[in-house]
Amino acid sequence: MANKIAFLGPVGTYTEEAALRYDPDADLRPYPSIASAGLAVLTGEADESVVPIENSLEGSVNFTLDLLIGQSGLFIRKEIVLPIEHYLMGKPGTRPTEVQVVYSHPQALAQCQGYLERNFPQAQQMASLSTVAAVTDAQASPVPAAAIAPKRAAALNGAEIIATGIQDVAANVTRFAALGKSDHPATGQDKTSICLTFDQDVPGQLYQVMGEFARRDINLAKIESRPTKQSLGQYIFWIDCNGHREDADMKEAIDAISKAVSSIRVLGSYPRWVATT
């Protein structure tokens, strides 16, 4: 039986493309939001979920970080890295000089901000639920409009491509995460994501945590903070580090850190993506 994979829809999004790369034979099921795609795993509607987690231009996708932090039963199983090329499209016959509104997902709008400022300085930028939804939003607009979306979205929605490769940086890539109820067995080339909190604001706390990794020669790939959403100035720290939670040195580091923080949770260990030249 085919693996049921929920993804941030609708059909035609970059997330669908990432899901197809992850499992070409899967039964793909689109969901309207990152949260609903992730929760589909917990409710049993899907075996796994594929959602965007980080872009090379705009950084982390906070909806995904918050989903994983807030749902203890979800784990990262794998990361999929996809080159992103944005297209500007609209109704057939739309002239660039007539465009008054540009629709897209907030991440795509941000990734094309320079292009929009140079070519459509007077156009209003409107957020859509997804890049594909932006195409239907533009087509339904009462004024001349365009959308930033994947190339496939034009064919799916009968839109005409106005411009190609409009992202501000050519080497634009997005990292997607495959989520499940368990993470991935060790492969020898892994990454582990962890979140942790402190109950007091004391100088050197984070330094102490990083020292536990450094003493065991564990490389930190990323560290950032998210608000706890309970009180201003309180944060949850997200850490990506090289290695698997079952590695002896990683186990030691996590055990040592757990004694210095108020909470710590492993969000998943999974095969680490490595760039090829």
Helix- and strand-based class? alpha/beta
Low-confidence stretches: none
What count of helical segments does DSSP give? 9
CATH topology descriptor of the largest domain? D-Maltodextrin-Binding Protein, domain 2
* Tally of individual domains: 3
CATH class of the largest domain: Alpha Beta
Shape: globular
> Care to count the β-strands?
15
Summed over residues and divided by their number, the pLDDT gives a mean of 93
Strand content: 25-35%
Helices and strands, with pairings:
Blueprint: E1 4-8, H1 14-22, E2 27-31, H2 34-43, E3 48-55, E4 59-60, H3 62-70, E5 75-83, E6 87-90, E7 101-104, H4 106-111, H5 113-119, E8 124-127, H6 131-140, E9 145-149, H7 151-157, E10 160-164, E11 173-180, E12 190-197, H8 205-215, E13 220-227, E14 235-242, H9 248-258, E15 263-271
Parallel strand pairs: 1-2, 1-3, 7-8, 7-9
Antiparallel strand pairs: 3-4, 3-11, 5-11, 6-9, 6-10, 12-14, 12-15, 13-14
Structural write-up:
The strands form 3 sheets. Strands 1, 2, 3, 4, 5 and 11 form a 6-stranded mixed sheet that branches. Strands 8-7-9-6-10 form a 5-stranded mixed sheet. A 4-stranded antiparallel sheet has the order 13-14-12-15, with helices on both faces. The protein folds into 3 domains: 4-83 and 172-180, D-Maltodextrin-Binding Protein, domain 2, CATH 3.40.190.10; 87-164, D-Maltodextrin-Binding Protein, domain 2 (3-Layer(aba) Sandwich), CATH 3.40.190.10; 190-271, ACT domain (Alpha-Beta Plaits, 2-Layer Sandwich). A hairpin with a 7-residue loop joins β13 and β14 (235-242). The longest helix has 11 residues, at 205-215. The model has no long low-confidence stretch (mean pLDDT 93). α8 (205-215) runs antiparallel to α9. By secondary structure, the chain is of the alpha/beta class. It has 9 helices and 15 strands. It is globular, with a radius of gyration of 20 Å.
